[in-house]
Amino acid sequence: MRRRPLLFLAAACLVPARPSAAARAARLWPRWEAHEPNSTRRVDHARWADLLRTLLRPQPNGRWLVAYAAAGAEERTALEAYLAGLAAVPVSALARPEQMAFWINLYNALTVKVVLDHWPVRSIRDIDISPGLFADGPWGAKLIAVEGEVLSLDDVEHRILRPIWRDPRVHYAVNCASMGCPDLAPEPYRADRLDDQLDAAGHRFVNHPRAVRLEGGKLFVSSIYHWFKNDFGGDDRSVIKHLCAYAAPPLAMALQTRARIDGHAYDWAINAAP
Asked: CA-to-CA distance for 97 and 89, rounded, in angstroms?
């Protein structure tokens, strides 16, 4: 898979950022580097596809929000069955693209389950199940066992996806159930379409005001580009270059004249469909 820069941006921020947790460093868990380059194994994501069709709601502004309140016993049972199936997958026996799709879908399905298990909530940050006196949100809680290892959302994102693939587009793919993050994709990520899906997610996010805004002669971006600046090149110019690669022509032209970012914002309100 080619490595193309990825961008994350979020809308006008009415909720304080979570810098201590959101800005976690990418620290490789070497145990998950194992893979089979020639493997033809495929993971079945049909249940996840059905759930996305049932729970995602397209919005007039082009966004996809989650109808958590519409999830009944049937949907919850299907989600648990899907996650149980993922937990039984021998991930180390998969090829790299299949693994990446596996981890992204696992992260997103786990996040939806966490929200449903605590519904109703105004923000995922209110689901304080992570260990530690000052824990914030569910990201540090151990939620699922894969190949005998019990994993948290932080493990999947910051110890597996980010350090193994080093692809900033990961930030467009994993959904943290907030209005400020990239939307949950309306279909599962799949190995045979992964590159195109990641690019499409980048385009959707970068071209929405929650990701990039030019206002009063100043450039404001999602806090994702601040928290994970190193993933996007390490400085403002690199972030802007990345944004230009995914921006529609009018926005790209406006960004080309910018040398710095003036501010960042993020909305932690739950990504629930009205």
From this structure: 15
**What per-residue confidence (pLDDT) applies to 22?**
58
Distances (CA, A) of 227 to 8, 14, 116, 198: 10, 17, 27, 20
Note the pLDDT of residue 146: 98
- Count the neighbouring beta carbons within 10 Å of the beta carbon of residue 122: 11
Pairing of strands 218-222, 212-215: antiparallel
Beta pairing, strands 263-265 & 218-222 = parallel
| Residue pointed to by tokens 């996806």 | 161
Burial call 62-92: b when 16+ CB within 10 Å, e when fewer? ebbbbebeebeeebeebbeebbeebeebebe
**3-state class (DSSP) for residue 17:** coil
CA distances to 43, 141, 162, 267 from 159, in Å: 21, 14, 7, 25
| The dihedral sign for the CA sequence 138, 127, 18, 243 | positive
Q: Report which residue type is found at 185.
A: A
**Of 85, 91, 113, nearest in space to 103 by CA:** 91
Instruction: Give the model's pLDDT for residue 87.
Output: 98
Give, in order, the Cα–Cα distances in Å from 204 to each of 90, 153, 155, 186, 248. 32, 23, 26, 12, 10
**pLDDT tens-digit map of 115-141:** 999 999 999 999 999 998 877 899 999
Among the residue ranges 67-81, 131-145, 200-214, the one predicted with the least confidence is: 131-145
pTM: 0.92
Burial class (CB in 10 A: 0-12, 13-18, 19+), 264: buried
